[in-house]
Amino acid sequence: MEHKHKLTIAILSLIVLAAAFITVSLLVQRVADEQESIDESDELIIDEEKAVTPGADLPDEKEAKSNEAAVLSVAFMVHMEGWSNEAEDINAYESHIGAIQELRTLFDRYDAKLTLEASPELIEADAKWGQYWIAKWDEAGHGIGVHADVGGSLRETQTSMTLEMRVMRENLEKLLGHQVLHVSGVCSANDWVEATIDAGFEFVTGIVGYCAMAMPAESRPAEFRFCANPGECHDPMPTTIAEKLHPWSTSDVSTWTTPDVNGELTLLPGTEIIKGLDGDSSAFMPPDVDAYEVLLKEAISLAEPGEVNLFYTGVSVGNAGINEDLYNDFLSRTQSYVDQGLVEWKTLPEVYLEYKTN
Questions:
Q1: Which residues contact residue 323 at a Cβ distance below 8 angstroms, ignoring those fewer than 6 apart?
Q2: pTM for the complete prediction?
Q3: Is the distance from CB of 148 to CB of 169 less than 8 angstroms?
Q4: For the structural domain made of 70-357, what CATH number should be given?
Q5: Which of 144, 219, 207, 224 is nearest to 178 (CA)?
Q6: Cα 151 from chain centre
Q7: 66-108, pLDDT tens digit by residue?
Q8: CA–CA separation, 114 vs 138, rounded Å?
């Protein structure tokens, strides 16, 4: 009997020890689980601290951009102007259209894109004669904008500039059936930045020295400090390739040369019109093509990976004929850099949209 009693006590002791062991094991596991939860919370906090703001480049994206090859966008701006009577004379209108079509045919051979900027006279004539060439060029993939040619007269006011440009934009939009984003020919001693914004445009091309006249005299470049009229200060501004390689934005005409990330108006300055690249603007000559290639090479050398890099020249298509041989030389030289992957043809609206999403 005593032996059975001792055996019972031994069994009970083992049961108590087993229960204690299980209890301790459970407590240890609970502590471990709680520590793991704390660690996960800490990691979450760390991850939140590392989180980027919406719209910012992720680390991988930044690295990818820095590893991209720099590509230069090239464009060709055409001021479709010079036929003041084309809304009254269909022959004048068709002659103007013929010159533009001739240029377009040359560019199409190289899959090169034009940016065609229409004068108010051409917009009116295109609607009146019902041939709708501007819409056809738009549908073919060329860029379309307005060449306003306002602001140069001392009699003009900021208000009159705004109203004129708004009417031009609305008339062109009726022909195209969609929004027109840009305008050229707006430089003035008036506040051309605010006037352009109020007229409903988003970016400006073909910026020249006369645009400086709206800045305080002490802020103007020396060569554009005192301009009696736009013709006197019609050289491109800024003057160097490096200064105009990347688009920028502004809302203040007094400081328009200084980029403002919150600016409402984007500026896409270009270089000299092609017939003046060699210093003689009287005619388009072989030295102009040589000068163009020198500037193109400089722009290529300055292009930055991950940035919007732009270089463009242009021409005014009035009543002068198109020199096919010179344009073929110009286009074939550009094509050699396209084939190397260093440049690509774009319209100026395409460059603007790339800038806005970059």
A1: 284
A2: 0.81
A3: no
A4: 3.20.20.370
A5: 144
A6: 24
A7: 557 899 999 999 999 988 899 999 999 999 999 999 999 999 9
A8: 10
